[in-house]
Amino acid sequence: MKKSFLLISVMLCCFSVKSQIVFGSFQEVLDYADKHSASIRISEAQQEINSIGEKHAKSFLYPSINASAGFNDNITLQPTLVPAKLFNPNAPEGSFEEMTFGKQYVYTTSLQAQWNVLDFQKIFAIKTSKLLSEAGKIDTEVNRFNTYNQLASLYYSISLAQKSIEIDKENLKVTEVMLDNALEKYKKGIISESDLNRVSIQNIQNKRKIEVTENNMVQLYRQMQSVLSLREEIQISDTGSVEDSVSVFDFQAIHPEVLFQEKQIDISKSLVKQNEALRYPSMGFVYQYNYNWVTDRLTDFSNANTLPQQFLGIRLNVPVFSGFSINQKIKESKAELKIQQLQLENIRIGKDKEDEILNLQYDQTKTNLERNTQILSLQEKNDIHTQDKYESGIISLDERLDRYSDLLSAQYNYLQSLADFSLAKYKIYIRKIDFQKP
After folding, report:
1. Which of 15, 128, 149, 324 has the greatest number of beta carbons closer than 10 A?
2. pTM of the model
3. Distance of alpha carbon 165 from alpha carbon 99, whole angstroms
């Protein structure tokens, strides 16, 4: 029985280990997202559709070949009036004879080949489809960029929550010691009940803060599971620090949204040429071969007449007048091109300013974190001295709690500056990724 219980326990432990994914760094999260995130995978699947559309556009360059077969049953052959003089010179003028031509059953086969050797509109349509396929690839990188930023926000929030819980647990230990000390003094009549309640409230607040932070961290993990499209539990073993090599310089990589808008302009230019091609002539070759069997018996081909036919033609289509519709299409496409160019300029300016702001935020948040770290270190030392004075009876409980509030304020400022700095650093780390590289 004990052996069975031990075996089941081992199996459950193995299952729990397998059902949990541990990330040791932010880059591991990004690597996992590239392979498993539904939003990124859907964008990559859309590239296959775009590629098929590009091949579909190219297929119009090839000739088309069609074969057909048919059968007609001339149930009633229509009589025809034929001048009588064709068969009898002595027949009176204006006389006709009723005759019937043809046979009842007609079998037909046909082979037709057509090749448009010159069609400028389709040539530009192929270029447009190629640009659309390239735009689809860039759109995938835009989606990847947005997913990375979403993951960065969740990742740093989880790391910050872990750091906050560590600090809160230390605070809880301090208030528990203070509460024990206050209880002894209250029993001895040294402090009042209101003083005891004040320590109890602070201790409960510390407990509540840990519970709230732990609950928030669970929610953040659930959100990250959703973004990464996984059901397994997630564990982050990293302390939240990004690569120390992150530095602030001019961003060399072009923002993916700028790349996407540049491609939209290329597409608009191609559409203008495609519409202008409506004015150009087109030329194609046509070949057709027909073969007919005619007979008076349904399945007897011994006395059937065969009627073969074939022809080769060249067709030249020159647009002369189309009610000004072509001109309107060209004007519309040129107006759309102008809009895309204005949007590109606006996006470039916006992204350049975002990069400048990001650099400023990085510098400022880094300075704030350094200052608040120094303040927290000094405040922690002060709190140790304050606790010693309190235990020695030099200061009152009220003053002890007031000094302790200063420590809590320093901790809050430290965590806030750490959050701001981490987010700025993550954004720079993602912004420096070159999404043009395969």
Report:
1. 128
2. 0.77
3. 108
Residue 125 has pLDDT above 50, yes or no: yes
Q: Is residue 5 very low, low, confident or very high in pLDDT (cuts 50, 70, 90)?
A: very low
Q: Tokens representing 376?
A: 């927290």
CA distance 99 to 106: 19
